[in-house]
């Protein structure tokens, strides 16, 4: 019996050599290029991004994965970037999305639902629980400030600047008081976990001064949009007031005041007409013309541009005044204007004594 078959050996050798050549050819995996998503982006790509973030334990706000890249999604992306050691800008660029959709994406370990730390977490992640206090600087401070601001707390007129100063310390104390935590003014582990939890008490439930409640109530209505039918404007504020449809900027201010008893405390009186609101401040000696008065946090801004308009001042800088206002393109919006805007006629003074903070992040 012939045990060796040269022809069969030849065929098997060819198969082996060919297979080796095929297997040894380098395989190039093309990296996917993601579309940069940022505040204002909308659509399925944004929704996919939000769904992935939520699946990893990051909160995109009460609207969830709605396909709208708003303020809450900016913070959500910022938080993901911080936990994953990426550049923190709140923009979902190629690097951020590559990490997000990879098998190495780190879950959020400070959102209140995942408070246990495993030994496998990197030191950069566990550092999120390190105590932050006055004098500290950096992205961890900025992340905490952003969260406080998005919950409606006032961190000073420089906003989320990454500098843990006196204003941030007082802001943390207010948050701790409202959330039944020891008022240390430091962001220790219990405060950190509460701050990033789903049940952190926001401005709708916080107990603070009447004027701060007044402004924060307005901020919580940011992005509310009325309905327009046959050029008639309908809103929940008009429905509350009893004039619906109708122009509702003054009714928005009146509703905000009514929600936290600011009417009773004489911060503002109820009216559906801008001219009447303005006259009330004039009659009470609390009106300041723009040429001679520097506005403050909580003041009422009056404008005249074909028709009258009214807004609530949230922040003031040397060059700009920042407001939250109703019936701006039929929605509640955050607006930045030049402090020398020719349409500004003046301000109703509420004497807060501080300049508030810019709200460019909205």
Instruction: Report the top-level CATH class of the largest domain.
Output: Alpha Beta
Order of helices and strands: HHHHHHHHHEEHHHEEEEEE
Overall pLDDT: 79
- Rg for CA atoms: 28 Å
Number of domains: 3
Domain Peptidoglycan binding-like: 43-100, 138-195
InterPro entries: CHAP_dom, Papain-like_cys_pep_sf, Peptidoglycan-bd-like, PGBD-like_sf, PGBDSf
Keywords: Membrane, Transmembrane, Transmembrane helix
Transmembrane segments: 7-29
Explain what this protein looks like in three dimensions.
The strands form two sheets. The protein has a six-stranded antiparallel β-sheet, with helices on one face. The protein has a two-stranded antiparallel ribbon with strand order 1-2. With 362 residues, it is of the alpha+beta class. The protein has twelve helices and eight strands. α3 packs antiparallel against α6 (139-150). Residues 17-29, 110-126 and 204-208 have low confidence and may be disordered. Helices cover 34% and strands 12% of the residues. The protein folds into three domains: 44-108, PGBD-like superfamily/PGBD (Muramoyl-pentapeptide Carboxypeptidase, domain 1, Orthogonal Bundle), CATH 1.10.101.10; 124-208, Muramoyl-pentapeptide Carboxypeptidase, domain 1; 218-348, Alpha-Beta Complex (endopeptidase fold (from Nostoc punctiforme)).
